[in-house]
Amino acid sequence: MSALARFTHMRDGTQEDWAIIAADFSAYARQLPARILTHLQLLEGDFGGFPVDRLTHSLQTASRAWRDGRDEEYVVCALLHDIGDTLGAYNHSDIAAAILKPFVSPENLWMVEQHGIFQGYYFFHHLGMDRHLREQFKEHPLFQRTAEFCARYDAAAFDPTYESLPLSFFEPMLQRLFAQPRQSLYKAALETSTPSGA
Question: What is the pTM of this model?
Answer without folding.
Answer: 0.91
